[in-house]
Structures are given as C-alpha cells and as structure tokens.
Amino acid sequence: MSKAEKTKQFIIEKTAPIFNTKGYSGTSINDITTATGLTKGSIYGNFENKDEVAIASFKFNVKKLHDVLSREIEKQRTFKEKLLVYPRVYAKYPSLDVTIGGCPILNTAIESDDTHPVLKKYAERTLLYWKDKLMYLIDQGINAGEFKAKSINVENTALTIIALIEGGMMISKLTGSDTDLSAIMLSLNKIIDDLE
C-alpha cells in the first residue's frame, strides 16, 4: 500500500463511525479533521469532496458487517444453520464490535432517502445484494431438501428476513432496548425454523 493509499484508508477508518452515527448531513468537515488529526487540505487531497468520503465510509462499514456475517455463515453446514446466522448475529449486534452507530444499511437508507441520491443508490444496491444472498441460501436449502419447496415464496421470505432485522434494529435504537431486538430475532428464528 502506498503512503497515499494508507492515508486514504486511515481517513475512511476514522470517519466511518462518525458518518454511521451522525449521518451525512450531521457530519461536518470539522468532524473529519478532528477525527483524523489531518487538515482540510489533506482530506481534500485524498478525496474529491465530502460525498466521496461518505461513500467510502459506507462501503467500509458494510464490508465490516459483511465480513462478520460471512465468517459465521462459512462455519455452518446446513442452509438452515446459515440462515440462522442472521438473527444470531443481529441479536448480539449492540455488543459486537461491528459498526459503531448501528446497521449502516438502515442508517444510510433512512437518512439518504430524500436528501442524498448517490448514497441512497449505494444503500439500495447493498440491500438488493443482501436479498439475493438470502434468496440463494433459501433456494439451496430447497434444492438440498432442507426446506419445503411448495410453500415457500423465496423472494418474500428473503424480504421478510431483512424487514425483521432492519425493523428490529430501528426499534432497538429508538427504545434503547436490546431486549426488543432479541425478541424480534426470536420471531425471525421461528420463521426460519418453519421453512422445514
């Protein structure tokens, strides 16, 4: 990694938690310089503008989350066990060292909905990738005979899993209650159990 690449990565690592906690609008260039200890000129010497830093920070946060989930999924043998990784990881999300500020997909999607079309596009792509991954696991479970094929609408099931996770994260964040999140993840466990 060149010095410039290391500096860029340093900026991303230091600002990713800020963007995920304060959002795009709430994060100022002063927040970025304070977090990194770099000058405004150094920031703009590595990134064209704040948008570019925000997008890189979103990608960084999503990759951290993806890596945690992927490592856990790879350890599982059955497709049901692979799906159950989602409620298990998200139930513990507040205590895990994944991303500060909660789920980056939820945070970015909510904030960028009407205010930042580029970030909204990245959040949408990430969500669609997640949906496709869940659909793949469900389809593979059907093909392996783990899940009952005729009664499963694969796309609806994938969307329901995402909706419960993101809804649970939102409720937990609003109420400050990890208990609410755990209860919703137990409901998601039952939905996955019922695929058999």
Automatic annotation (TrEMBL):
Residues 5-65 form the HTH tetR-type domain. It comes from the Bacteria. Pfam families: TetR_C_13, TetR_N. Residues 28-47 bind DNA. InterPro entries: Homeodomain-like_sf, HTH_TetR, Tet_transcr_reg_TetR-rel_C_sf, TetR_C. GO terms for molecular function: DNA binding. Keywords: DNA-binding, Transcription, Transcription regulation. This is TetR/AcrR family transcriptional regulator.
